[in-house]
C-alpha cells in the first residue's frame, strides 16, 4: 500500500508544477525507419537451411512539442507469440498448445511521452524501451542489423514494457533512472498473477572513452505461496576510442521462471575500424545456466562495409554450440 501512496504523491507533485512547464512552441517532428534484411545459410546436426529474411522493419515518429515535452511512437514487425511455456507448482514444464500467429505481425514497440518538468529531471510514461539492455547496450553494440544483444537474444528480459520512468542526469558523466513496469512485455497487458517489476539503472562515464553501467530489477509475484521473486542483475563495462571498441557484460537472472531456475552468462565483443567505411568485429556469448540443458556458446565474426553513414553491409560467420550449427550471413541495414 505504501508504494502506491508514494506513486500517488509523485503524480500529484507533477500536477502541481505542471503550470511551470515551458510552453514555448517548437513543434518539430521527424519520421524515421530501420530496415534490416539479408541472406543466411545454416548447417546443424538437425538440418540445413538457407533463405532471405527481414528481422526488423521498423517505422517511427518523434515530435518535440516544446523544450520540455517530447512524444515518440514506434511500430515494428516480428512474431508476437513465441516460446510459450507453462509450469506446474513444482516448476516442471507442461505441454501446451497455442496459436503461434504470423511471424510478420506489426506491433507497438514503443509509445513514450517524456516530460522534463525541471532541469535534469524528466518523467516518461507509456510503452518504454527497457534500460536493462535496449536503451544502452544495443546502441553500444551498434550491430543490431547483424544480431540483437546477448540479453535480448537469450530472453533475459523484455525489450519494452508498459510503465513509467523517472530519469535524473546530474551531469554529462552520470545518468540515473528508476522504473515501474507491468512486467508482461510489449505484447500484452498486466495479468493477475504478478505485481509490477521495479528497476534501477546507473550509467557512469568517468572519462570520454570509458563507461560503466549497473542495472537491478525485482519482480514479485502475487501468488507467493509457490512462486519466488525474480531478480535481475546486470553489469556492463565498455571502452570506445576513435578506432577500437571493446565491451563486456555479465548478467544474472535469479528465479527466471519464478521457481528455482537461475540464468546467468556473459557477453564480450570488440570491433576495429580500419577506415571510416571498413570494420572487423567479433562477439562471444556464453550461457552458463539458461533454458538450454548445457553451457552454451555463440560466436559471431565478420566484417562491415559502410557505403554511407546510414547504410551497412556485413558478411559474417556464426557458430552456436548447442546444436553445433555453422552459419554464414550477409546482412544489410538501412536507417532512413
What fraction of residues sit in β-strands? over 45%
Please name the fourth-level CATH homologous superfamily. Answer: Porin
Mean pLDDT: 88
What is the CATH T-level topology?
A: Porin
Order of neighbouring strands in the sheet with most strands: 1-2-3-6-7-8-9-10-11-12-13-14-15-16-17-18
Question: Main attributes?
Answer:
336 residues, mainly beta, 3 helices, globular
Give the helix/strand layout.
Elements: H1 2-17, E1 25-43, E2 48-66, E3 69-78, E4 86-87, E5 93-94, E6 105-118, E7 121-129, H2 137-141, H3 150-153, E8 160-171, E9 174-181, E10 194-207, E11 210-221, E12 230-240, E13 244-254, E14 263-273, E15 278-289, E16 296-308, E17 311-320, E18 325-335
Antiparallel strand pairs: 1-2, 1-18, 2-3, 3-6, 4-5, 6-7, 7-8, 8-9, 9-10, 10-11, 11-12, 12-13, 13-14, 14-15, 15-16, 16-17, 17-18
Amino acid at each position: 500500500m505504501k508504494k502506491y501512496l508514494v506513486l500517488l504523491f509523485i503524480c500529484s507533485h507533477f500536477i502541481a508544477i505542471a503550470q511551470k512547464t515551458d510552453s514555448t512552441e517548437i513543434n518539430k517532428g521527424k519520421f524515421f525507419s530501420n530496415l534490416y534484411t539479408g541472406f543466411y545459410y545454416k548447417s546443424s546436426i538437425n538440418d540445413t537451411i538457407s533463405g532471405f529474411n527481414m528481422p526488423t522493419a521498423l517505422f517511427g515518429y518523434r515530435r518535440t512539442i516544446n523544450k520540455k515535452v517530447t512524444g515518440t511512437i514506434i511500430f515494428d514487425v516480428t512474431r508476437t507469440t513465441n516460446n510459450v511455456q507453462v509450469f506446474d507448482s513444482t516448476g516442471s514444464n507442461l505441454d501446451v498448445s497455442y496459436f503461434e500467429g504470423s511471424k510478420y505481425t506489426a506491433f507497438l514497440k514503443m509509445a513514450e511521452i517524456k516530460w522534463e518538468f525541471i532541469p535534469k529531471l524528466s518523467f516518461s510514461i507509456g510503452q518504454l524501451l527497457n534500460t536493462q539492455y535496449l536503451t544502452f547496450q544495443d546502441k553500444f553494440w551498434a550491430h543490431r542489423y547483424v544480431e540483437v544483444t546477448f540479453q535480448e537474444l537469450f530472453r533475459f528480459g523484455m525489450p519494452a514494457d508498459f510503465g513509467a520512468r523517472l530519469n535524473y542526469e546530474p551531469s554529462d558523466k552520470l545518468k540515473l533512472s528508476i522504473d515501474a513496469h507491468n512486467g508482461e512485455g510489449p505484447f500484452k497487458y498486466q495479468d493477475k498473477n504478478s505485481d509490477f517489476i521495479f528497476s534501477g539503472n546507473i550509467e557512469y562515464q568517468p572519462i570520454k572513452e570509458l563507461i560503466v553501467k549497473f542495472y537491478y530489477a525485482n519482480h514479485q509475484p502475487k501468488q507467493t505461496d509457490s512462486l519466488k521473486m525474480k531478480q535481475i542483475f546486470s553489469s556492463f563495462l565498455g571502452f570506445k576510442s576513435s578506432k577500437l571498441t571493446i565491451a563486456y557484460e555479465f548478467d544474472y537472472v535469479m528465479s527466471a521462471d519464478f521457481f528455482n531456475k537461475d540464468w546467468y552468462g556473459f557477453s564480450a565483443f570488440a570491433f576495429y575500424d580500419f577506415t571510416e567505411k571498413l570494420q572487423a568485429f567479433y562477439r562471444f556469448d556464453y550461457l552458463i545456466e539458461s533454458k538450454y540443458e548445457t553451457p552454451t556458446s555463440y560466436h559471431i565474426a565478420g566484417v562491415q562495409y559502410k557505403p554511407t553513414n546510414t547504410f551497412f553491409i556485413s558478411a559474417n560467420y556464426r557458430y552456436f554450440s548447442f546444436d553445433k550449427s555453422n552459419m554464414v550471413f550477409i546482412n544489410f541495414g538501412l536507417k532512413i
